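Worked Example 4.2. Read the sequence first, then its structure tokens.
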Amino acid sequence: MSNLDRQPTPSVCGGRGFVVAEPVRELLSPRHVKLGESTEVRRLLPNLGRRMVGAWAFVDHYGPDDIADEPGMQVPPHPHMGLQTVSWLHEGEVLHRDSTGSLQTIRPRELGLMTSGRAISHSEESPRDHARFLHGAQLWVALPDAHRHVEPHFQHHAELPRVTATGLTATVILGELDGARSPGTTYSPIVGADLAVTAGTETVLPLEPDFEYAVLSMSGEAEVDGVPVLPGSMLYLGCGRTELPLRAVSDAGLMLLGGEPFEEELVMWWNFIGRSQDDITQAREDWMTGSRFGEVKGYAGDRLDAPELPPVPLKPRGRVR
């Protein structure tokens, strides 16, 4: 659950000044980024047009990749601060290790939720004996100031609540949807749900009008509020909605992401979320000197070094670029 860009761009996100207060249909295209040796991801957040959706601050979609004769995902130990990571798979497995001692294989439609709080480090890898295909999403949730220094911890939930209707199964990843609540710990009003929609289905999802929303397409062909959304793209929907029309042209997999617009301004760089450039500078120094972030045991390889900080001070630019 990482940003392996060796020249990451620092950005300020959060704040409500650029939140779209009414329903919109803003289609976001991905940026292609290498993750480790053999995995390429499609990065939807942060995006040239938008940096957050509620507390969701980072969204990567990857696969389906044929890794039958490949090592698959191989991400060495690296740090996180001020955020939660969400691992979500449609195919394959990912082995998670972290500096709290967690060791867990995450499988399709199981929730792997890591809360970094003040500091954590972890690694991600496809097991040696793995399925042929790897397909999933990796996401970050920004922690509000009151909780950003909590003790780091990891949760794994193999069983999650579901909301069903004709042609639709919605698995609640985080937060609450239509009365079903995920067991995953959250620190701000938020929702994440996996939507499996069968071909020919036309249905409507209930939404919270005070939340802003986006829908990520994982697979298949679907229309979200009348807009065609293809795999690897994301439709930003704004606020002010009480329901969301969905239509599946083929069997389709989608992710609904939403939450109360995030009021605090954040500084995000590499794998850290802070409130100032000083926060980021200190986190980088602590990782490079072996302080604070702990040790990931059992990974066969070296940990990642942090990239160099940019030579110019961070310039706030708000929620959108």
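Now turn to a second chain, presented in exactly the same format:
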Amino acid sequence: MIRILLAEDQAMLRGALSALLGMESDIEVVGAAADGEGAWRELQRLGPDILVTDIEMPGLTGLELAQRIQRHALPVKVVIVTTFARGGFLRRALDAGVSGYLLKDAPAEQLADALRQVHRGGRAIDPQLALEAWGEADPLNDRERKVLRLAGSGMSANEIAAQLNLSHGTVRNYLSEAIGKLGVGNRIEAYRLAREKGWL
């Protein structure tokens, strides 16, 4: 049996994925989590073969979760199922050691087949995205990305500084660097462009 843990913040989708995968004779959904931190706890408790995760989740994104799994060298493979059809996300996912990257509008049997392929040690990547991913390189580093994401959510430089335990000046430097690298006029334009490219 292929033991699966699901991480998806939308309850209806989490239930649908669980039901669909549960219909496969060789796949067992052993647990589900509504956010990244919950998924991290369940991973350690259940020791599944594969984590199927969304990218956007409260607390810890699917990509951050994959990076944490990679850092701790946990013996679990990661498959991302998302609506984000952007090459930038796929590049970051592959850098984080992800074995699969599929879109939510793919047919259900494609997901089951992808899980089998990943379980055998292969990779399952949406082919159209794979082509896109090797286009433009992501110019942002992790700190710039984090600061820009918070700025895009409407937080001021002072609020970002408090949340990330940085000085106000450091936050302004990160924002300036991101704006400069992206060749735009301000933080809102930088956020929009980075989001569009899949770099956030």
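Notes for the reader: The CA atoms of residues 47 and 165 lie 33 Å apart. The beta strands are 2-7, 27-33, 50-53, 77-82, 100-103, 124-125.
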